[in-house]
Design a protein that fits this description.
alpha+beta; globular; SMI1/KNR4-like; 11 strands; 6-stranded antiparallel beta sheet; 5-stranded antiparallel beta sheet; single chain
Length: about 220
C-alpha cells in the first residue's frame, strides 16, 4: 500500500461520524501499519452467541462487529491493555466488561442499561485499594470510537523493530502534523512513515513503517 492509498487524516475524521467510518479506519490502519485484516482475525457469530447465552444478555451491534473484525488480532488488542475474548466477558457492578489493563488495574465496559443501543457509550473503572471507592466513570461516547482508539494505541505499543519510543516526559518531535482527536486523552501526530500518539499529556509512543523512518525519528 502506498501513501496515496490510505489518508489517515481523512479516515480519522470520517470515523468520528459513525460506525462505517470506524470500520474503514481500522481496516486501513491495520493494512498500512501492519498486516491487512483477514476473515479469521475475528471471532465467529457462534462464539459471540455463546457469550450472550452464558451471560444472559445481548451484545451491542458495534461490539459484535469489532469482535468479528479483529478480536483475535493480538497486535491490535493486547500489547498493553487487553481485549477480553468472548468467553472471558463478565459483568461487574452493572457493566459488561470487555477490556482490562495488563495488570488488571483498570477495566472498561458498557453499562448494562446501555446494551440495547447499537453503539453505546463506554465506561472506565480503576482498581482501587478501597473497593468502596470504585466507580464506573464515563469514557467514550461510542463503543466504536473506544475500539478504534484501542486498535491504534495497541499497535503503536507493539514491541518490535519498528517501535521508536514509549516514554514519559518525552516531547512530541517537531515537524509533525497533528491529526484529528480520537480516543480519550490521545493526541495524534504524523510525519513521513511515522505515527505518534501522546497519551494523557504524559506518555509519548511512536511507530514507523520503515527502518529508515524509525532511524530518522529516533534521531530527533
Amino acid at each position: 500500500m502506498d501513501d496515496t492509498e490510505f489518508d489517515i487524516r481523512a479516515a480519522m475524521a470520517e470515523s468520528l461520524r459513525g460506525r462505517a467510518g470506524t470500520r474503514a479506519l481500522v481496516e486501513g490502519f491495520a493494512a498500512y501499519w501492519g498486516e491487512p485484516l483477514r476473515p479469521d482475525d475475528g471471532f465467529t457469530d457462534a462464539e459471540l452467541d455463546a457469550a450472550e447465552g452464558r451471560l444472559g444478555l445481548r451484545l451491542p451491534a458495534a461490539l459484535r462487529e469489532a469482535y468479528r473484525l479483529f478480536g483475535r488480532r493480538e497486535d491490535l488488542t493486547g500489547n498493553h491493555n487487553r481485549l477480553l475474548s468472548p468467553e472471558e466477558l463478565f459483568v461487574l457492578d452493572g457493566a459488561l466488561v470487555y477490556q482490562e489493563e495488563n495488570q488488571a488495574c483498570a477495566h472498561w465496559g458498557v453499562l448494562l442499561a446501555d446494551l440495547d443501543q447499537d453503539d453505546p457509550p463506554t465506561v472506565g473503572r480503576l482498581d482501587l485499594a478501597d473497593k468502596s471507592e470504585e466507580r464506573w466513570e464515563p469514557w467514550e461516547e461510542r463503543f466504536s470510537t473506544a475500539a478504534t482508539a484501542m486498535v491504534m494505541v495497541e499497535k503503536l505499543l507493539q514491541d518490535d523493530e519498528l517501535s521508536v519510543f514509549a516514554e514519559s516526559g518525552v516531547e512530541v518531535p517537531e515537524g509533525l502534523t497533528e491529526l484529528p482527536r480520537l480516543g480519550r486523552g490521545c493526541r495524534w501526530f504524523t510525519g513521513p512513515d511515522v505515527l505518534v500518539v501522546e497519551l494523557d499529556e504524559d506518555l509519548v509512543v511512536a511507530r514507523a513503517r520503515t527502518e529508515e523512518a524509525r532511524d530518522a525519528l529516533a534521531e530527533q
